[in-house]
Each structure stands twice: as structure tokens, then as C-alpha cells.
Amino acid sequence: MSVSFSSSPVAGSARLLPGGPVADRILAEVAEGVAALRAAGVVPTLATVLVGDDDASVGYIRIKQRQAAELGFASPHVRLPASATQADLHRVLADFNDDAGVHAVLVQHPVPGHLDYDRALQVLDPDSDVDGMHPVNMGRLALGLPGPLPCTPAGIEALLAFHGVPVAGREVVVLGRGATLGRPLAMLLAQKRPTANAAVTVVHTGVADWPRYTRRAEILVAAVGVPGIVRPEHVRPGAVVVGGGVRYAGRRLLPDVDESCARVAGAITPRVGGVGPTTVAMLFRNAWWAARRAAGRG
Ligand SMILES: NC(=O)c1ccc[n+]([C@@H]2O[C@H](COP(=O)([O-])OP(=O)(O)OC[C@H]3O[C@@H](n4cnc5c(N)ncnc54)[C@H](OP(=O)(O)O)[C@@H]3O)[C@@H](O)[C@H]2O)c1
């Protein structure tokens, strides 16, 4: 079913745009692709690195390893103690770079406060970067060159396409210009491609009257990290609203988009299970692509 933009929605009628089915479809494609590589004698390998013993990070990496195994990846793991130095982390990444059998590398973040994740990322071979956040990959994105894509933005494009939300030629407003989400998403959705090709505007703290822009958006993406910042009065009636920004209070997830926006929006991502599942799916898609490229099949 596709989504159309309505100027007179029925209150409370917003259609939900869950990420789960989108992720399932992407992961099925990844599993098929991984199996094909294995059949051709290549074992797609996604290495994971964890520094320290933060409970949440230990849990996240375990889930990703289990999912990697289910998809058919080999998944060597290195765990460094919380006392590891920046040089220790760089050494692990350099060793993975030198190992032709390792196609993709995931560094679980956040890393302990004394370490610099961004600096570590720069040590990694850009082609192995499953987060798509290496400066070379951001440059590739800006130039429209192939490479691993930042996971959350790529997941949002996939989510909109899956749910039949027309993006091409539409007015998209992205609230937030952060490096993980707003900025790369704006670049992605402005690219010349049927699932993108939008008129994209980015607003932030430098635009005091940002509601003036969000109120005219046919698609509004919240990419801020300020709970409840997007309220019904910021949404054009009938618009598609995508909640990307979140903050955590302990284990509780606090989204940018206030739930009451569903009264005004035509379609909206759910509070939980929106862009989270598609982000993870894109990580595995990047890992599969990395293996395919390394095998000369990308
Ligand atoms: N769901 C997921 O899987 C997922 C994945 C990645 C990121 N995220 C979330 O996405 C959000 C953005 O992450 P990020 O790293 O890209 O961004 P970031 O670096 O934290 O930047 C936040 C952006 O929001 C803007 N902003 C903050 N307060 C504002 C306000 N009151 N009014 C207008 N603009 C405001 C900032 O403006 P200035 O530039 O002017 O300071 C900045 O551009 C975070 O909540 C993050 O947790 C979610």
C-alpha cells in the first residue's frame, strides 16, 4: 500500500510505518547473498570489537554476533579491557585491515570515555566500515560514489520506499544536522534516484524559527536527540513523520517526536520499532557488500 499526502486528515488517523518488515526484507536479501558467497567459496566475515564491560554494550554486541551467525557470517570477536589504550584499539583494527579474510569490522560504541571513537574509525579500512561513518565513506556519499552507507539514513530511505512513501520531488525537512543522521540523510535523500530525489531542507539551532520550515514539510525527519521537540503544531497536516532522534533515560527510550503528532500526521514511525530495526539491517547489508566487493563481486 502506498502513502499519499493528505491536506485534511482525520484526527488520530496516522498510518504507522514500522521498520521491522523493512528490516526483515533487507536481512533476507543479505542471508541469500551471504549464502551465495559461501557457495562460491568465500566466507563473509564480520569482525566485532568491544572495549570494556559496559552491560548494555556487552548485550548489544552479543545480539549482533548472534544475528551475524544466523545470517551466515563468520564473526571473530576481540574484547579489550576497559583500560585499553587508543594504541591498543588501533592495533586491533590494523590487524583486521591486514587480514584478507576479514571483510567488515564493527566497533561497538560508545567506547570508554578516554578513547576517541572517531580517531579509531580513521584507522579502519574504509571498505570494512559497517557503520558507513569513515570520513572516506562520508566523502563517497557526498560524491555519489559507491561505498558503505551510514546505517540510519540508509535505513530511513529504505523504510520510506518499502512503505510506498513518495519521496522524489517532495519537500523533505530534516530537523538536525548531526554527522550520524541529519547531515548524511540530507545528502542521501537529495541524490538522483527514484527513492530519493527530494527537495531537502536542513534546520537546526541556527534557524530559530525552524517550525516555519517543518510546518511545510511533506516528509519531516526528526534527527535531534531532544525528547518531545517535535509537537503537532510543527507538523503539516497529513505529512509523513519519521522519528530518528532519541535519548535514553536508563533503558527508557525518549523520542524526538511527541506521540501526539499522530493526531496530525498522515503516516508516522512507531515510538519503538521504527528506524532502529532498519539501522541494524543496514549494518549487515554493509557487511555483505564489503564481502562481495572483496570477492570481486561488488
Ligand atoms: N535510532 C537509531 O538507530 C539512531 C541512530 C543514530 C542516531 N540516532 C539519534 O539521532 C539523533 C541525532 O544524532 P546525530 O549524531 O546525527 O546528531 P547530533 O550530533 O547529536 O546533533 C543533533 C542536531 O540536532 C540539532 N538540535 C539540537 N537541539 C536543537 C533544538 N533545540 N532546535 C533545533 N535543532 C536542535 C543540533 O543543532 P546544531 O548543529 O545547531 O547544534 C544538531 O544539528 C540522536 O538522538 C541519536 O541518538 C538514532
From TrEMBL:
GO biological process, one term: L-histidine biosynthetic process
Catalyzed reactions per annotation: (6R)-5,10-methenyltetrahydrofolate + H2O = (6R)-10-formyltetrahydrofolate + H(+); (6R)-5,10-methylene-5,6,7,8-tetrahydrofolate + NADP(+) = (6R)-5,10-methenyltetrahydrofolate + NADPH
Single GO MF descriptor: methenyltetrahydrofolate cyclohydrolase activity
Domain of life: Bacteria
GO cellular component: a single term: cytosol
Keyword Hydrolase appears in the UniProt entry: yes
Domain Tetrahydrofolate dehydrogenase/cyclohydrolase catalytic: from-to ranges: 18-131
Record InterPro entries: Aminoacid_DH-like_N_sf (IPR046346), NAD(P)-bd_dom_sf (IPR036291), THF_DH/CycHdrlase (IPR000672), THF_DH/CycHdrlase_cat_dom (IPR020630), THF_DH/CycHdrlase_NAD-bd_dom (IPR020631)
UniProt keywords, alphabetically: Amino-acid biosynthesis, Histidine biosynthesis, Hydrolase, Methionine biosynthesis, Multifunctional enzyme, NADP, One-carbon metabolism, Oxidoreductase, Purine biosynthesis
Pfam families reported in the protein's UniProt record: THF_DHG_CYH (PF00763), THF_DHG_CYH_C (PF02882)
Binding site for NADP(+): G176, R177, G178, V246
Pathway per the UniProt entry: One-carbon metabolism; tetrahydrofolate interconversion
The Tetrahydrofolate dehydrogenase/cyclohydrolase NAD(P)-binding domain, residue ranges: 150-293
Signal peptide interval: none
Function (record text): Catalyzes the oxidation of 5,10-methylenetetrahydrofolate to 5,10-methenyltetrahydrofolate and then the hydrolysis of 5,10-methenyltetrahydrofolate to 10-formyltetrahydrofolate.
SUBUNIT field: Homodimer.
Similarity comment text for this entry: Belongs to the tetrahydrofolate dehydrogenase/cyclohydrolase family.
Name of this protein: Bifunctional protein FolD
Lineage: Bacteria, Bacillati, Actinomycetota, Actinomycetes, Micromonosporales
